[in-house]
Design goal:
The protein is α+β, with helices and mostly antiparallel strands. It is 38% helix and 11% strand. The structure holds zinc ion.
Length: 331
C-alpha cells in the first residue's frame, strides 16, 4: 500500500526559518521560495499553452504526415482516421480509433520523427521565428528537444500528487507531477509516452516531469514482455551497429513501442497474445534466442530453461479502482 506522506511542513511567516539561521521565515527564505514557486507556476502555464501549439504545428507539415502515420500504426489504421473525432465511442472498443490515437501520433511525430533535413519538429520550432514563444515556453521548448517516446514503469504513487516512473530501458527514476495520472495509474503498470521536463520544485534537485500529449497505459503484466520486445529490436540494430544503445534505438525507431501497444488486447488480459507479440517480432527480425543473447552481450539461454524474465506480478499492488481491462490511457 502506498501511503501519502501527509506530514505537513507548513510554517508561519513569523516562525523560525527552516534553514536554522535563527531569523524569522519571512525575513529569511520566504521571499526566494515565493519567487521559485511563481516560476514553477509560470512554467506550468507555459507547458499547457506550448503543447497544443506544437501539435498544431505538426499538422502544418501535412506532406510528411502520411508516411509517418504508416510508420507509427503499421497499416493498422488508414490515414483518413486522422479526420475522425478522438474517442468516438463504439460498441466494440477494439474496432474504434484507439483512445486519442490522432494526438498520440502527432505527439510522436513532433518529438520523434526526423524530417528530411535530420531535425525533429520540436528542434525546428526552437529556431522558427514565426513560432513565437514567451521566455517560459522557450526554456521548455529548448529542454524538450531530446525527449522521445519511451516506456515507463509505475514505481510509486502518491494519489492526487504524483507518480514515480522508472524508465524501463535506462532504469532512471522520474518524478512526475501529474494529478490526473496519479489517480488513473496503478503500481506496476506501464506508460508509453513522452515525459518532458517541466519545472523544478523549490528545493528539489531534479526537475519535475509531465506526460506530454496522449500516452498509452498498459496493464502490469506487460513490462517484462515490452522490455523483451525492445531488446529484440536492439539486438537487430546491433547486427549493423554493434555499439548501439537504447538511446540509438529510440532515436531511430521509437515507433516500435507503439507497435507493441497496438498489438495488445483492449478488452481482457491475454498472456498468450503478449507472448505471441514477442515471438512474432523475433521471427520478423529473424533472430533466435541465442543470437539475441549474443548481440546483447549476455550468456546464451539454457536450451531447456525458459527465458529469464523480470518479475511480472499477476495482481496490481492494489491502489485505485481503475478497471484493469481499460488498457488505454488518455492524457
Ligand atoms: Zn532561512
Amino acid at each position: 500500500m502506498v501511503k501519502s506522506d501527509k506530514k505537513s511542513t507548513k510554517r508561519g511567516r513569523n516562525d523560525p526559518c527552516h534553514c536554522g539561521s535563527g531569523k524569522k521565515y519571512k525575513d529569511c527564505h520566504l521571499p526566494t521560495e515565493q519567487v521559485a514557486r511563481t516560476e514553477q507556476l509560470r512554467l506550468r502555464q507555459a507547458q499547457d499553452s506550448l503543447l497544443p501549439r506544437i501539435i498544431e504545428a505538426a499538422q502544418g507539415v501535412a506532406e510528411l504526415l502520411p508516411a509517418a502515420f504508416e510508420r507509427f500504426w503499421q497499416g493498422k489504421y488508414a490515414f483518413e482516421r486522422m479526420q475522425e473525432p478522438a474517442n468516438a465511442q463504439g460498441t466494440d472498443r477494439s474496432l474504434t480509433w484507439e483512445d486519442r490515437g490522432a494526438e498520440r501520433f502527432l505527439t510522436w511525430f513532433a518529438f520523434d520523427v526526423r524530417q528530411p533535413d535530420g531535425h525533429t519538429l520540436v528542434e525546428h520550432l526552437v529556431t522558427t521565428e514565426a513560432f513565437t514563444t514567451d521566455p517560459y515556453e522557450r526554456s521548455l521548448l529548448t529542454a524538450w528537444q531530446p525527449v522521445r517516446l519511451r516506456p515507463y514503469l509505475v514505481e510509486a504513487l502518491k494519489k492526487g500528487q504524483g507518480v514515480t516512473l522508472r524508465d524501463l530501458l535506462s532504469s532512471e527514476l522520474r518524478q512526475v507531477a501529474d494529478y490526473g495520472a496519479s489517480k488513473r495509474l496503478a503500481l506496476g503498470e506501464v506508460v508509453v509516452g513522452h515525459l518532458v521536463p517541466a519545472d523544478t520544485a523549490p528545493g528539489a534537485e531534479a526537475p519535475t516531469y509531465y506526460l506530454a500529449g496522449a500516452a498509452a497505459q498498459l496493464t502490469d503484466d506487460t513490462a517484462a514482455k515490452l522490455l523483451e520486445y525492445a531488446e529484440l529490436h536492439l539486438a537487430d540494430m546491433r547486427r549493423r551497429m554493434p555499439a548501439a544503445t537504447w538511446a540509438d534505438l529510440i532515436d531511430e525507431r521509437s515507433e516500435l513501442l507503439n507497435h507493441f501497444v497496438t498489438a495488445l488486447p483492449t478488452e481482457a488480459r491475454d498472456p498468450g497474445l503478449i507472448e505471441r507479440i514477442v515471438n512474432e517480432g523475433r521471427i520478423a527480425l529473424q533472430l533466435t534466442a541465442e543470437s539475441v543473447a549474443a548481440l546483447l552481450g549476455r550468456p546464451a539461454p539454457e536450451p531447456t530453461a525458459a527465458n529469464p524474465e523480470l518479475p511480472a506480478p499477476d495482481q496490481p499492488t492494489a491502489v485505485g479502482e481503475e478497471d484493469p481491462s481499460d488498457a488505454r490511457l488518455a492524457d
